[in-house]
């Protein structure tokens, strides 16, 4: 039940980005506007906006988080290490120290942001967390939204998205609900 729910979550996010590409999404236009205002240049236009790479990074990070929570000590040390690395990169950017190329970190940030619903959803499915399931469902619905209209040729993708999204909701919530009995 959990494996099918995870697969349907991945399929629904993939179909959502097939229906409405990343470049047309309100979320990414807003992030591009903020980053362009901060850096004074179009950063996201130079990056690879691959939804497949984002889904794979989300799958990897969500699975890694689930495996790390099995052992509490390893989980705490990993979180402290990630937090320290992020703070050091942030401080280095303000001090002008460029030991790590920012193009790589910006690309990883974009791919992680694209795969965030997958990472949150995997944690919700495999750790029986209803809050994470709600957040993943919200992000899958909201992140690909844009103003571009759809044609009749995309009806198969739209129906596939609706079916896989409903399958994700039903199976993940059903497992979470009945695992607590």
TrEMBL record:
<feature type="transmembrane region" description="Helical">
    <location>
        <begin position="133"/>
        <end position="149"/>
    </location>
</feature>
<keyword id="KW-1133">Transmembrane helix</keyword>
<feature type="transmembrane region" description="Helical">
    <location>
        <begin position="108"/>
        <end position="126"/>
    </location>
</feature>
<feature type="transmembrane region" description="Helical">
    <location>
        <begin position="77"/>
        <end position="96"/>
    </location>
</feature>
<keyword id="KW-0472">Membrane</keyword>
<protein>
    <submittedName>
        <fullName>Uncharacterized protein</fullName>
    </submittedName>
</protein>
<feature type="transmembrane region" description="Helical">
    <location>
        <begin position="155"/>
        <end position="173"/>
    </location>
</feature>
<feature type="transmembrane region" description="Helical">
    <location>
        <begin position="51"/>
        <end position="70"/>
    </location>
</feature>
<keyword id="KW-0812">Transmembrane</keyword>
